Amino acid sequence: MESTSTRPRILIADDNPQGVELLEAYLGELDCDTRTAADGEETLRVVEEWLPDLILLDVMMPRISGFEVCKRLRGNPRTKDVAVLMVTALDQPSDIDRAVEVGTDDFLTKPINKTELLLRVRSLLKGRMYKKELDRALAHFQNIEQAAGQPPGTTQPPQL
């Protein structure tokens, strides 16, 4: 179910209630809707039904790790473009490498610095917004091509 709201949707996926509370408080400065999930399976379920713009994803969660959640999201055509910011206590270069391998967009080590978190969240949300606008524009051009009876991809967008 796609959002009709212009407010960004952020899912906080963390099994630590204090960590969730802190992230919710930090995100309170943003004009966004938030939901939470306490483990990997719940995270995947919430993503499927709510389709957030951004997930703040803890790595070490019960049932399914954040690494596996991210990998599954990237493998699903419906969720492959959801922005993922891994937020974790893991801080070894190999952890960051693994996060990149499974498709995270960014990586933030706990304890969280509020300013750094908000900067990264705003940046990721801006990128997600631009991607949605581009997808809408491409769909519009495809509709124009179909209405004109031309094969998709043959009409060039106007030069500015």
Short description:
The protein is α/β, with parallel strands linked by helices and 160 residues long.
Can you give a write-up of this model?
There is one protein chain. The protein is α/β, with parallel strands linked by helices. It has one domain: Response regulator (Rossmann fold, 3-Layer(aba) Sandwich). It is 48% helix and 15% strand. It contains 5 helices and 5 strands. It has helices at 17-27, 40-50, 66-75, 93-102, 114-147; strands at 9-13, 33-37, 54-57, 83-88, 106-109. Helix 2 (40-50) runs parallel beside helix 3 (66-75). The protein is elongated and about 55 Å long. The model has no long low-confidence stretch (mean pLDDT 91).
Q: How is the largest sheet built, in terms of strand order?
A: 2-1-3-4-5
Major sheet: size, sense and barrel closure?
A: 5 strands, parallel
Task: Fill in the CATH topology.
Answer: Rossmann fold
Instruction: Determine the N-to-C terminus distance.
Output: 34 Å
Strand content: 15-25%
Measured on Cα atoms, how large is the radius of gyration? Answer: 18 Å
Low-confidence stretches: none
Classify the oligomer: single chain
CATH class designation: Alpha Beta
CATH homologous group name:
Response regulator
Q: Which structural class do the helices and strands define?
A: alpha/beta
H-E string: EHEHEHEHEH
Record field, number of beta strands:
5
